[in-house]
Amino acid sequence: MKKYEILEHISDLKIKALGKDKKEAFKNALLGMFGGARYKPISKIKNFTPTPNFGVEASKSKREIKISSSDLQSLLVDFLSEALYLSEINQEVYYDVQFKKFSDKNIEGILSGKKLKRIGVQIKGVTYHGLDIHQKKDKTWEAILLFDI
Q1: What keywords is this UniProt entry annotated with (predicted)?
Q2: Rounded to an integer, what is the distance from CA 111 to the centroid of its chain?
Q3: Cα separations (Å) of 117 from 55, 56, 58, 59?
Q4: Superfamily for the 4-148 domain
Q5: pTM to 2 decimals?
Q6: 95 backbone dihedrals φ, ψ, rounded to 5°
Q7: What value, to the nearest 5°, has the Cα angle with vertex 133 and ends 104 and 30?
Q8: Less CB within 10 Å around the terminal CB: N or C of the chain?
Q9: In angstroms, rounded to a whole number, what is the distance separating the alpha carbons of residues 89 and 149?
């Protein structure tokens, strides 16, 4: 199963994140957000999995997160917004999350990442526009997200 896919959009970054469960869909949304930001200017190429540009001596980092929201959709937006905020202030990109607690309204976990040399496109924010997260007929999860760039 693909982790995420970059979808066509005229001016912003749009992704579809997939997962065997909600946790994996959230993790893959994180990967799609940071991977897609590097790749957005040439996003018409199919089947390309981008990776952020780490510095030559990229040091690993870990950041604790604790998020509470009113529902699953808000939790996804708040989770990605927190990762984006931490990325900006720490000049890091996150490629993994280990959830200690996960429910439809709360997350506690640890983001793992590396220092950045540069990223292709700066994401201004995670939007609610067109946001959709749902379980498909085959019991896998899918999230459609739009990022303001």
Answers
A1: Calcium, Metal-binding, tRNA processing
A2: 11
A3: 4, 8, 8, 11
A4: Archease domain (3.55.10.10)
A5: 0.86
A6: -120, 0
A7: 85
A8: N
A9: 17
